[in-house]
Structures are given as C-alpha cells and as structure tokens.
Automatic annotation (TrEMBL):
Band domain segment(s): 26-183
Entry's transmembrane regions: 12-31
Segments forming a coiled coil: none
Biological source species: Shewanella carassii
Membrane disposition: Single-pass membrane protein
Name of this protein: Band 7 domain-containing protein
SUPFAM superfamilies reported in the protein's UniProt record: Band 7/SPFH domain
Localisation per UniProt entry: Membrane
CDD domains: SPFH_eoslipins_u1
SMART domains, per the entry: PHB
Domain of life per record: Bacteria
Length: 264
C-alpha cells in the first residue's frame, strides 16, 4: 500500500516537474532584430518589447509578433474606366512597412488584408479621375497621388507607405489600333507643318535674294553665268542662255533700222 502511494506521488511529482519545465520554457521568447512583440496583460495592452530575449508570465501575458521589414505587395489587376471613358486593366506594386506595432495590432484586425483592399480601391478611384493619355505619360504623378492617399489612410494603422508603382496599363486591341492611328496622324500633321514652315522660310529668303539682286542690274547676269557654269559641269548637251529683255529690244531696234535703210 505504501509503495503504491509513493509510486503515485513520484508520478505526480514527475508530471508537475514536466509542467513546470514547460511553463518555464514558454516564459522565454527570442525576437529578431526586425521583430517586435506586442504584449497583452490579461487581455489589455501592456507594452511593446524587443528585439532580443523576452520574458513572459505564462497564462496572464500573451505576445503577438510583428515584422517591421518593408513588405512588397502586388496589387491585383483592376478594371478602370478613365475620365474619357476608356476601359483599361491596371496593376501595381505597393511598398510599405509597420512603424507602430501597437496600432497595427490593436486598430485593425489584419493590417495586410486591409492595406491590400485599400490599395485596390484607391487605385481605381485615382486612375478613374484621369484620362488615358495621363495614365500612359504621367505615371510618376499618379504614383505620388496614390502613395499620398494610402499613406494618409494607413497612418491610423501604424503603417507607412513608402512607394507605389503602376506596373502595367493593358489596353484592348481596338484601342491599341486607335492609338496607333492617332500617332500616325500626329506625325503626318507635324510633317506637313514642318514642310510648310520650310516653304515659308524659302520664300522669305527668295524675296531677300531678289531685293539684293535688284539693287545692281549686272548682278542678275552674274547669277546667270554662275548657273551656266553649274549646268556645264554636269555634261548636259543642251544649254539655255537667257538674255535680258533690254538687250533683245535694242537688237530688235537695230534690225529694224537696217531693214529701213536697205529699203531706201
């Protein structure tokens, strides 16, 4: 009888010893450099501890780990209708980190899911206020607007949004063809404008040249001779030699005088 009692006592002592060792081990927690522990005492917030060795009172204290490293979150593709009624699919990437572990655990149930949903709705609302050309050309401005709005909303959750980058703006085939036609028409317009400007500048220079040549009667003859020199250098078989009208009128007058004298 005594042996049975002593044996049961030994077993009970062994069980108590194992339980005490388990409680003792559960008291010690190790947090890495990028981790913090939000401590609750009987369900109420106590303090934020870490990094390093943390001692908890079993049963009455609980700890929630929080990672302080920058989190990279891929925002799923969103269907967006721009201000000029163009349907596009846009996705982005979000960079954020927890700066206040207390707010991240107490003020929101799941800060990762909350930040993801807020990023999706903000992406649709911000891009819906801009036209397609602005989405394609002014991504830096749109990124800054989305980052500012997200940062202001997540401040109550202890989260700092560092950066937002729009990755892709996907268009359907009909819109891609329309943009290609628009770009082609724009290039044709620029070509016509440049050609017209060239014609206008050439005409102005011709007027200036004509005024300069008109100041000296012999200048036009020198220009004729220079043109003949250029034509002769190309080994052409036909050369047209222009003559001034004054010279032709004088030759015509002299021919008439000779004819009248011969008749007399």
């Amino acid at each position: 009888m005594g042996e049975a009692i002593s044996g049961s006592l030994n077993i009970s002592f062994g069980v108590l010893l194992v339980l005490f060792a388990a409680l003792l081990i559960s008291m010690f927690r190790i947090l890495r450099e990028y981790e913090r522990g939000v401590i609750f005492f009987l369900g109420r917030f106590y303090r934020v501890k870490g990094p390093g060795l943390i001692i908890l009172i079993p049963v009455v204290q609980q700890m929630v780990r929080v990672d302080l490293r920058t989190i990279v979150m891929d925002v799923p593709s969103q269907d967006v209708i721009s201000r000029d009624n163009v349907s596009v699919r846009v996705n982005a990437v979000l960079y954020f980190r927890v700066v206040d572990p207390q707010k991240a655990i107490i003020n929101v149930e799941n800060f990762l899911a909350a930040t993801s949903q807020l990023a999706q709705t903000t992406l649709r609302s911000v891009l819906g206020q801009h036209e397609l050309d602005e989405m394609l050309a002014n991504r830096e401005m749109l990124n800054a607007d989305i980052q500012r709005i997200l940062d202001s909303h997540t401040d109550a959750w202890g989260i700092k949004v560092a950066n937002v980058e729009i990755k892709h703006v996907d268009l359907n085939e009909s819109m891609i063809r329309a943009i290609a036609r628009q770009a082609e028409a724009e290039r044709e317009r620029r070509a016509k404008v440049i050609h017209a400007l060239g014609e206008m500048e050439a005409s102005e220079k011709l007027v200036e040249a004509a005024q300069t040549l008109g100041k000296e009667p012999n200048a036009i003859m020198l220009r004729y001779l220079h043109t003949l020199t250029e034509v002769a250098a190309e080994n052409n078989s036909t050369i047209l030699f222009p003559l001034p009208l004054e010279l032709l009128s004088k030759l015509n007058g002299a021919f008439k005088d000779l004819t009248e004298k011969s008749k007399n």
